[in-house]
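Input record (one chain):
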Amino acid sequence: MTTLSLATYLAIKEIWRSRGRFLLVSLVIALITLLVLFIAGLGEGLGNGNREYVSKLDAQLIAFLEKSDFSISGSRLSRSTLAQIRRVEGVEDAGPIATSNTVILLPDGEVLKVSMLGVEPGRPGEPKVVQGRGLSTDLAREVVIDRNVVVRSNIKLGDQITIRSTQGAKDEFYTLTVVGIAEGQSFFLAPAIIVPYFTWDRVRPKSAAEMQQPSNTMNVVAVRLKDPAQMASMTALLQTQVSGIEVTDIPTTIANLPGYTAQQSTINTQGVFTLLIGVLVIGGFFQIQVLQKVPQIGVLKAIGSSNGMVGAASIIQIILVTALGVAIGGFFTFIFSLSFPPTVPIIFNGQATLLAVLALLIIGPLGGIVSIRYAVRIEPLKALRLG
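The corresponding structure, as predicted from the sequence alone:
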C-alpha cells in the first residue's frame, strides 16, 4: 500500500511540474478521442438509417422470393403466397411490406425524400405509433410518419401532406392525412412514411405499363410466430409448405440490406486504425519521457525504490493522462454534436459510445508498455554513469 501511495504521489507530482507537456499529449489524445467517437457515431447513424424500420418489425421471420439472396428490393411475392403463409400452422400473423421512394412537397418549393412503405393495417409491418393512431383501412388515404420526418420538416399530427409520384411520363400529386407518428423508422437511409397497401399501390411511382392494372405483389412478408422460440423449425416448415420462397430472421435480413455490411466494415476498420494510431502516439510520447528522465529513475533506484514502484508510477501517470485526454475529447464531442443538423447521420448510443471510451482508456497503458518495461530495467549505476 505504501508503494502504491508513493507511486501515485510521484506520478501526480511529475505531471504537475511538467503540466504543459502532459497537457499537450492529453490534447492529442482528446483529438484522437474526438475522431474515434465521431467514427463510432457515424457508423451507428449510417447503420441505423439502413436498418431502423426492419429492426423494429413486430415479427420474427421475413419471407423473400426464392433465390433473391434475401434482398428486399429484389424480392417480389404475390398475394396468394401471403395467403399460403398465413395458413401455415404456427404462424400467428403475416403482413405484406411493399417499398418504394417518393418525395413530400414542403413549403417554399422544398422537397423531402422519403421511403414509402405499404403495409396492411393491424398486421406485422405496421409500426407502433407514439402519437395519434394507426392506419384504419386498406384504402384510406392516411399516412403514419416517423419521427425523422417530423424532425426534418414542420409536419405534425393531423396535417395533410402532398407527395409527388411519377406515373408513366408525368408527375402526379396525392394528398394524404397524417393520422399517426411512429418512432424512428428510417429505411435505406431515408425517413419513412407508412401507408395502407392499396393506397401505396395507387400512389407509388409507376412505369407506363404498370399504370394499366393494379399491382398484385409486395416485396416481402413479415411473419409473426405463435412461439418465437421455434424460429428454426418454422423457417424449414414455411419453406417446405409454401413454394417459391426463402425465409430468414431479422438479423440476417439486416445484414443483407444493400451496402450495410460493407459500410459497417469500412467504418469499423477506420475506428481500429485510429486506435492503432493512438497506441503509437501515446507509446512514442511516454518512451521519450522515460528516455529524458533516465538519471532520475537511476537515483530513485539507487536510494532503494523497487522496480514495482517505478513501474506503478509510470502506469498511473499513463492512466491519468489518458483519462484526462478522453474526458476532454468526450466533452468536445458532446458540444460539437449539439450543432449538427438532423440530416447528418450521427448517433451516439450508450453501448457504442461506452465501447469506444473503454477502448480509448485501454490504448494508454497498451501504448506505454514499452516505456514501462524500459523504465523498470534501468540499472542505477549505468543511469548515473558510474558503472
